[in-house]
Amino acid sequence: MSARENDLLRIQEIYDIATQTIAQLDELRLTREQFVHPSTTQQLLIGEGLTNRVLRAAEEGGRLSEAFRAYGFELREMSGLRNRLAHAYGTVDLHMIWEVLQSDFPKLVEGCVAYCADRDIRLTATWQSAAAEAGEFESSDQPRKA
């Protein structure tokens, strides 16, 4: 169940999930092969964590109002993906998850930014602020493009 109370909070959550995931995938240099066919416990755990990120983004996206279709959000598809992941985690199609991470997450970032720009709201990645304050890594304002 979504913990967000309104569309703007959901957009912030989706933006944070997508930008953090894109940045971390870039840092990890995880290949499609390593994701789909993990050969180490570390790769397996990374894959499970990334699948959970897709679930979280789909959960929030599936609860957005219809107005978000204009920003490229596929609401019905997001809700359907959430349901498939929530009820069949052990049998998830990792090829599909990889495609979501590589193709759809950058589109989610673009949609979040466009929605907020139309309302004169500047999105910031809250995960970067927290990590930078903790000294974990240098933050970057822009995630990599797929």
Topology (SSEs and partners):
Layout (H helix, E strand, L loop, with lengths): L6 H22 L3 H5 L4 H21 L13 H13 L6 H24 L8 H8 L13
Helix pairs in contact: 1-3, 1-5, 3-4, 3-5
Brief overview:
The protein is mainly alpha-helical and 146 residues long. It is 64% helix and 0% strand. It starts with 6 loop residues before the first helix and ends in a 13-residue tail after the last helix.
3D architecture notes:
Helix 1 crosses helix 5, helix 3 crosses helix 4 and helix 3 (41-61) packs across helix 5. It is built from 6 helices and no strands. The relative contact order is 0.17. The two termini are 29 Å apart. The protein has helices spanning 7-28, 32-36, 41-61, 75-87, 94-117, 126-133. The protein is mainly alpha-helical and 146 residues long. 64% of the residues lie in helices and 0% in strands. The longest helix has 24 residues, at 94-117.
Structure classification: mainly alpha
Estimate what percentage of residues fall within beta strands.
Answer: under 5%
**DSSP strand count:** 0
- What pattern of helices and strands is seen along the backbone? HHHHHH
Helix content: 55-70%
Parts with pLDDT < 50 across at least 5 consecutive residues: 139-146
Biggest sheet, in brief? none
Q: Globular, elongated, flat, extended or rod-shaped: what is the shape?
A: globular
Number of helices: 6
Query: How much is the radius of gyration in Å?
Result: 15 Å
Distance between the termini: 29 Å
